[in-house]
Amino acid sequence: MSFFKSRKSEKASGEKLIKLEKFEMWVDAGGKGLHEGLLKRAEKLAAGTDPGPEREPEFHWIIREQLTELCRLFADRDDRLVIFNLGANLGLSTLKMNALAKKLLPRGNYFICAIEPDPANLHFLEKNIAQNSAHAQAFACAIADHDGEAMFHRSTHSNLGALVASPHTDAGTRRVPIFTLPSFAKINNTGQPHFLKVDVEGGEVEVLKGAREFLAGCKPPCRMIMEVHPGSYSEERSLEKELHFLFERGWVCKYMVSAAVIRPDKFKQAGLRPFKEFTTKHHSRGIYRDFLKEQLLEFACREHIQEVPGKKSSRKIVRSILIEKEN
């Protein structure tokens, strides 16, 4: 544990405490990305005007549904519910998960590991956990396919930094500690995670690759919601290969969230229809179930061109997936 604490966070110059619906958060008043969006939402709430839908409403709807089920399950168990938040950023999703869990479970019956490698984000993550007395801890590292160190590619937008370089990683690099999931769990004596949120901007391939046998050996309940980035995959970095490995070892895909439009062309051709739809100012997405494994692997792991009315075309048709260990 001392290794993680030795890593310093980076303090911002324009820190501001804002009030959201269920908790308070520290943000950078001059920051981009998530900082900017949270500030605007807080301003509307303070003025008594409608702030609109929450950020990534379909993603957080799934998290709430799954965590509610798990909390009710663990209410009758002696062990605690362990949550891993990979790519915890400023702490928004950590605080949302904590707000839900504390309503349904005693404080000692759940714990959130908030994992964030970017020092600037880490500073706010630590402050936001403390501000809300969340039953969580911030860990200054990233999860990958081996233990050691790696270059983290930073972004001027707080939510777009990654171990995998992209056009959005425009703010230099920083060497950060990395661990596989099993190493992280062993070092911190967490036991098996029961819910994982993975939002690591393309690094999900390495997360799964480094945890193959660990995830294959997990006992139910173990569920994972994960954003996908098919533009960053290749034959060598294949999400399709990693998911196929898990599907052969008791994992199944429960939900698939569309990207670009609510019902992409490929989904229409396959006769798939969403059971829930979400529309915000910037996005329209649907949540799907009852699809074939082969459809998930094709739609989520490969690029597909999708025309979007009034906007430029998209190269992806799946935003995120929910998988779970069934047996």
Task: Explain what the structure shows.
- By secondary structure, the protein is α/β, with parallel strands linked by helices.
- It has a domain at 2-227: Rossmann fold.
- It has helices at residues 2-5, 34-47, 57-74, 92-104, 119-131, 181-187, 204-209, 212-216, 239-247, 265-269, 293-301; strands at residues 15-19, 24-28, 81-86, 110-115, 136-139, 142-143, 148-153, 173-179, 195-198, 223-227, 251-258, 276-279, 284-288, 318-325.
- It starts with a helix and ends with a strand.
Topology:
Elements: H1 2-5, E1 15-19, E2 24-28, H2 34-47, H3 57-74, E3 81-86, H4 92-104, E4 110-115, H5 119-131, E5 136-139, E6 142-143, E7 148-153, E8 173-179, H6 181-187, E9 195-198, H7 204-209, H8 212-216, E10 223-227, H9 239-247, E11 251-258, H10 265-269, E12 276-279, E13 284-288, H11 293-301, E14 318-325
Parallel strand pairs: 3-4, 3-9, 4-5, 6-8, 9-10
Antiparallel strand pairs: 1-2, 7-8, 10-14, 11-13, 11-14, 12-13
Helix pairs in contact: 3-4, 9-11
Keywords for this entry:
single chain; about 325 residues; Rossmann fold; three-stranded mixed β-sheet; about 30% helix
